Amino acid sequence: MESLEEAAVMAQTAEFQPLDYTRYDFKDPETYKVRTARGLSREIVEQISALKEEPAWMLDYRLRAYEHFVERPMPDWGPDLDCIDFDAYTYYANPLAEGETKRRWEDLPADIRNTFDKLGIPKAEREFFGGVGAQYDSGTVYHRIRDDLKAKGVVFTDTDTAVREYPDIVRKYFGKIVPYNDNKFSALNSAVWSGGSFVYVPPGVDVGIPLQAYFRINAKAVGQFERTLIIADKGAKIHYIEGCLPKGEEVLVGDELTPIESIETGRAVLNSDGEATTVEKTMVRPYDGDMVHITPVSKSNAFQLTPEHPVLCVRREKVAVSRRAKGLPDVDPSKLAAATPEFVPAGELKPGDFVHYPVNRTENDDPELGTAAMNVLGYYLAEGCTQMINGCEAVTFTFHIDEREFVDRLVEGIRELTGKTAWTNPQPKKHAIVVGVYSRALFDLCETHCGRLAGSKRLSQTMMELPPAKQQLLLKAYYEGDGHVYRRGGTVHRVMTISRQLAFQVQELQARQGVFATILERAPFKETMKDGREISHHTLYTIYHQVGKRAHAVHRVKGSFLVPIRKIHRTPYRGNVYNFHVAGKNNTYLVKGFSVHNCTAPIYSTDSLHTAVVEVMAEPYAKVRYTTVQNWSKNVYNLVTKRAVAMESALVEWVDGNMGSKITMKYPSVYLKGRGARADILSVAFASAGQVIDSGAKCVHSAPDTSSKIVSKSIAIRGGRTSYRGLLHVAKGATGVKAAVRCDALLPDEDSRSDTYPYNEIHEEDATITHEAVVGKIGEEQIFYLMSRGLSESDAIHLILMGFLAEFAKELPMDYALELNRLIQLEMTGAVG
């Protein structure tokens, strides 16, 4: 990658990474038909060329590029790239045989088809785009163009196919706009390139709707090195675009269930090992399709998710001992005990399969919460309330008049905790006895750890993390005060509450006692009494468990429970779906207590490398727009060279958005070689924690009466770093040039950084050049004004940011503008305020 000082000859770096939805952290099995050994050598380059059966001129070009790559040092400017180990990557991995690119979607292998289905390619192809390409690691697996465009002579295929089928056109332009010796990374791409798109638009043809490509890195430590070549012939026009759980579903965060859309970065959640972990990144996407509803034997634990979302389970068919004529097969308990749960897409699950319910292993003792406190708080959950009596804090309990044993135990516990003697008030007509005490300390203890009113009672995080032995004391007192025992095919223990959170917390505490409790929900209703009064009954939750259940029911295995699925059905869904990525290797979380995997592009602990080259030729009077919305996962080095040449009266537009990657170095450029040629570059960079986005633009004016406009906008949060690195060069003889550069940076916090490195080289006195750079923060008065109009602080900040980026967003197709909006909203979650 050349330095800006070297760029006076041509403007550089680019990437064709169209809507790359690498935020979907799913990964497929690495079943590749062709894969080279790890590392880079002359032999590897020759092997890649041989696999593709390329002509001699291409092999010669590759080998010259490889020699230049080896000899050329790493750039001594920009972000630090010294940690890249080029021998740690695989440079070619193709899931199909070479030359096996498919033209029909149904011909793709099922796993690859499912991968791109999740990215919306077939839907996009049908509804929005004139052609679609899809690259999977090194292989272009799919390419198709609409018949009406093909009839006009438009060529849209992968670059490998173009080398074989359009050799004259490819050889004329390949490496002429971005030569292999342009920079170190163009040399690397030229040596090992594979895939990418080739587009040729004949003279005068207007491709009225966009062509789009998708890229995906699936395998660990595999680089992606696509090569894109776009030629718009005289007067032609083209627009080229690179390219979970529903709202309300609840995630277990240790002490409570929380709607997934409310989960924020940094939040502690439980994983499938029952251990606490931290949310590293949240994600949202639009979804239009089926939602799978899974109902286990505990109906209130029913949950829903998209069909591809992996659920941890044991398939009943793998542990079955026999088949019945009707109903589910019996289960061999020994097989079930030995079975290893596996992740299965929700859409493939069947009734009777066992879903995984882990036991919460988080444990932190509090010495101040001893036996007396556990007894009193258990009775408080069942029968107690806090209230102000004559201006004094009081705690009262109401028992049945025959429950004197429990009353005596409670009075003793109150005396031990407060040093006070509780008063008792028998009420024979109501068959009740009321126990009370005036104590601010007990008042605060009860409200802090158990809540206040019956419908809002819930256990504090401290209570949820106490040792199981202490929690057993709490449960014993709670069940004594509000529980029932009866026989129905065994001994059944149950307790009832109108607090939904408390019901699921009791279920979790019972699991720590070795018991899986079922939750049933009774809907609210109104009842008319004999005297005409109408009474409203709240939703009632019954938590119960049975002793001596049959073998095909719930099983405790290896510190967790395997719970059979009672019912599965699907419903149509249209709206946003949510997901998140957590710290550590166990990238799982719990939905209604059950284990699911983060279902989005593979995120590996090792880094990945994306080094692409894009060459665009706009012949006289042609118009080319190239749009990128890039969101690589944050372990990708994104080092790309994008360059266009504009001939007489041609127009080249780069619309470039960078949201993802670990390090990005990308500077879309236009070399204006014909009189009246124009360039319009609009770039956005958004860097969060651990990200360096070094981007910008370059315009080289070598012909008279040419014009260019560069607008760069950047946002850095949570310690992220953005840089604008730009070049404006006006050559001798290029008279009448008009050029404008504007750089706007926004820093919402004190930890982030934004830099500007503009280079202006003007060799004609009549050139009209303007340059403007502004760095700002979000003003408190702006936030206050919007909040005074009813917006929350986070919504106010998001609105300000989207206003800042409006100039970029309005240039995107509608679905991409919505995508940008969602990405900004997710990255800003928890960043300010």
Description:
It is a single chain. The protein is an alpha/beta fold and 833 residues long. 23% of the residues lie in helices and 36% in strands. The strands form 9 sheets. Strands 5, 6, 8, 33, 34, 36, 37, 39, 40, 42, 44 and 46 form a 12-stranded mixed beta sheet that branches. Strands 4-3-7-9-35-38-41-43-45-47 form a 10-stranded mixed beta sheet. Helix 2 packs antiparallel against helix 8 (184-192). The radius of gyration is 32 Å and the shape is elongated. Residues 1-32, 96-103, 115-143, 214-221, 600-606 and 828-833 have low confidence and may be disordered.
Number of helices: 20
The CATH homologous superfamily of the domain at 249-358 and 556-597 is called Hedgehog/Intein (Hint) domain
Radius of gyration: 32 Å
Strand content: 35-45%
Kindly, what is the distance between the CA atoms of the first and last residues, rounded to a whole number of angstroms? 39 Å
Report the CATH topology name of the domain at 249-358 and 556-597. Endonuclease - Pi-scei, Chain A, domain 1
**Mean pLDDT level:** 79
Low-confidence stretches: 1-32, 96-103, 115-143, 214-221, 600-606, 828-833
